[in-house]
Proteasome activator PA28 C-terminal domain-containing protein
Amino acid sequence: MSHKRIKIPGAEGYSELLNALEHDGKNIEYITIETIEKINQMLDNDLFNRTNLDSIQSFASKSVVNIPTLNDNNDTYDLVIKCNERLEILVEHVKHEEFLFIENAEKICGLIDLNVMYNNRINYETQLLWKNEIIEMQGQISSNHMDILNYYRNRSEIASNILKEPRISDYWEQLIEIDEDFFFKLRTILFNLRLFHLRLFRIVYNWIHPSK
């Protein structure tokens, strides 16, 4: 069985690779500013604005529907619990910003591990503090993502209760309440992401402009 040989770059190739990584890392200075502005717009637009809460409530109350089914040539109806389509749109926006932060944070951690920032006379102790700060933010984002997963699990449990006992109105109210709560949680996650991007910008800025 033959194996492909991996070409290890020499000193010149390694230097070119480090320069490429450094250039990529410095681009994060502009990416974070653009992302912060984008998040500001998202928090102010119709999707994440508090005035959108009425739409969230409306979608929640309409998520329990009767779906016609054909059984032995007789029309019957099954209760179906639909997802809150309005919230699904917000989740996709939040997950995109989470992914963007994680990707950029990993790039900066990689530069620290390779000690590329030492070229700007940033001592390793400072770099280590920056890396610990980034890891802390990544941990918070992982926790936020678990909040999203917990929402789906809890909503599924409430939906199951509705299907089992559709005459108990409290279950229906719980469905609306959990969607309302999740809307505000998504806003909070977005606020945190804006802060995290700002903190990441500060780290990159202090690396690129150490004299300032």
In short: The longest strand covers residues 64-71. The chain is about 70% helix and 10% strand. Residues 35 and 100 are 9 Å apart (CA to CA). The two ends are 57 Å apart (CA to CA).
